[in-house]
Amino acid sequence: MSDHNAQAPGADPHSEPSSRAGTNGQGTSSHGTNRHSTSTSTHSQDTGDSKSTLPSQHGYNGPIEPGPAPIRVALVDDQQLVRSGFGMLINSQPDLTVVVEAGTGADAVRALRNHTADVVLMDVRMPGMDGIEATRQLMEMAAGAPAGSARAEQKIVVLTTFDLDEYALAAIHAGASGFLLKDAPPEELLEAIRTVHRGDAVIAPSTTRRLLDHVAPMLRSHGAEQPQHQAAVARLTAREREVFELIALGQSNPEIAAGLFLSEATVKTHVGHILAKLDARDRVQIVVIAYETGVVSPRG
């Protein structure tokens, strides 16, 4: 079942509440449970100037600092039922909000030219433009955005139906920050969004490791075509090499810090140096490079 419409839920903040509910004649719907129904542009324009104040009877008239903005999520899947289910789950969380839905890769690229998402959940197998090509185009858009902007920091998580999916690996090569099984428990999906937004851990490391073990021969072949990765790994210091190997095994910063008797701040500094020396986007690409260069070998 395909749905070729993309939407940004609640994209018109000036419309009457009654016009947001239900489904319009063009197949664009809004979630009745969406408590964060403001548009992406409204999020981006909110500079914190509209701070409220406590009533004077409380004895304080100073501004109330707003809480952190919710993580903006885009859902891209050709099955409307999947999008609806994920959307209701995500919008049930106070720190997450769905800002874009799309039924094809092409629709997702068009929608995300006008709306900014922090994390994109991308189905890898869709008719027309698949998740691999959509990921590639979105990463090109991110690369052209100003450094440090929300668009430049956008992360993509690939959704797949089975864990040994070479399409998922192709999407990671295209720029995705990891992948997640569609039948993952709800709490794993929610934590994956938060994790990839933080950028401090590999998503579902055990699942990612199974995929990489499965395609290790392909990775080694790909690595042989990129000798710059071997040279970059050789430039790591002894301590950076230790951290590099532990990242490749799926360990988080706190786990690495505990194992090497370092502070988390020191580990974070090492991770930053490793990313820069390897010219890697994120920790998932560090793991891929570890496989390509033979630092990590597939488990028997």
How much of the residues is beta strand, in percent?
5-15%
* String of helices and strands: HHEHEHEHEHEHHHHHHHH
SSE class: alpha/beta
The mean pLDDT is 77
User: Runs with pLDDT <50, length 5+?
Assistant: 10-56
CATH architecture of the largest domain: 3-Layer(aba) Sandwich
Trace the largest sheet across and list its strands.
Answer: 2-1-3-4-5
Instruction: Write down the overall geometry.
Output: globular
Distance between the termini: 39 Å
SSE arrangement:
Blueprint: H1 17-20, H2 40-45, E1 71-76, H3 80-91, E2 96-102, H4 105-114, E3 119-123, H5 131-143, E4 155-160, H6 166-174, E5 179-181, H7 186-198, H8 205-214, H9 216-224, H10 227-234, H11 238-248, H12 253-260, H13 264-278, H14 283-292
Parallel strand pairs: 1-2, 1-3, 3-4, 4-5
Could you explain the architecture of this structure?
- The protein has two domains: 1-12 and 67-199, Response regulator (Rossmann fold); 217-292, Response regulator (Rossmann fold, 3-Layer(aba) Sandwich).
- It has a five-stranded parallel sheet, with helices on both faces.
- It starts with 16 loop residues before the first helix and ends in an 8-residue tail after the last helix.
- It has 14 helices and five strands.
- 46% of the residues lie in helices and 9% in strands.
- It is globular.
- It has 300 residues and is α/β, with parallel strands linked by helices.
- Mean pLDDT is 77; it is low at 10-56.
What's the short version?
The protein has helices at 17-20, 40-45, 80-91, 105-114, 131-143, 166-174, 186-198, 205-214, 216-224, 227-234, 238-248, 253-260, 264-278, 283-292, and strands at residues 71-76, 96-102, 119-123, 155-160, 179-181. The chain is α/β, with parallel strands linked by helices. The longest helix is centred in the C-terminal third of the chain and has 15 residues, at 264-278.
